[in-house]
Amino acid sequence: QVQLVESGGGLVQAGGSLRLSCAASRSTFSFNTMDWYRQAPGNKRELVAAITSSGTTTYADSVKGRFTISRDDAKNTVYLQMNSLKSEDTSTYYCHAIRYGLTYWGQGTQVTVSS
Fold first, then answer.
1. Following CA atoms 77, 80, 81, 82 in sequence, which dihedral angle do they give, to the nearest 10 degrees?
2. CA separation (Å) from 80 to 15, 37, 59, 68, 69?
3. What pLDDT does 55 receive?
4. What confidence category does residue 28 fall into, taking pLDDT thresholds of 50, 70 and 90?
5. Could you tell me which of 111, 93, 113 has the C-alpha nearest to residue 4?
6. CA gap 77, 61 in Å, rounded
7. Residue 29 in contact with residue 73, Cβ under 8 Å?
8. Lower CB density within 10 Å: C or N end of the chain?
9. What backbone torsions phi and psi does residue 89 show, to the nearest 5 degrees?
10. pLDDT tens-digit series, residues 53-71
C-alpha cells in the first residue's frame, strides 16, 4: 500500500508564496509520474503540474512561470513551489502518483489566497 501525505497549505495574501510537500511511503524512484492536481468547489479536478521519473515537467497554462514542481528522491518527496499566488489559485491541492500501473491520491491540502 502506498500513502501520499500532503502538507504546506494555508492562507496567504495575493502575490505571496507557498510550498506544498507530498511525502510518499515508498521510494519515489518507483513512481512513473508524480503530479499535483487541484479542485475548487463546483469545479472539476485539474492537473496543475507533473514530473516524470526522469525529471521532465509539465504545467497547466494558468500556472506556468509561477509554479515549480520538483522531486527529492532521497526524501521520497515531491514539492510544488507556488509564487505570485492569485485568488483563483484558491483550491484543495492533491498529490497524485502512478506506480506500476496503479494510481494513488493524497488526502489534499487547502490553499486559500486572499485578495
1. -160
2. 16, 11, 11, 6, 5
3. 92
4. confident
5. 93
6. 24
7. yes
8. N
9. -80, -10
10. 899 999 999 999 999 999 9
Residue 85 CA to residue 94 CA, distance in Å, equals 17
Q: What is the mean pLDDT of the segment spanning 42-49?
A: 96
- The mean pLDDT of 39-57, rounded to a whole number, is 95
CA triplet 96, 21, 2: central angle to 5 degrees?
45
Give 55-104 as a DSSP string. --EEE-TTTTTTEEEEEETTTTEEEEEE-S--GGG-EEEEEEEEETTEEE
pLDDT at 26: 85
CA atoms within 13 A on the CB side of 89: 32
- CA 58 to chain CA centroid, Å, is 12
Beta bridge partners, 20, equal 80
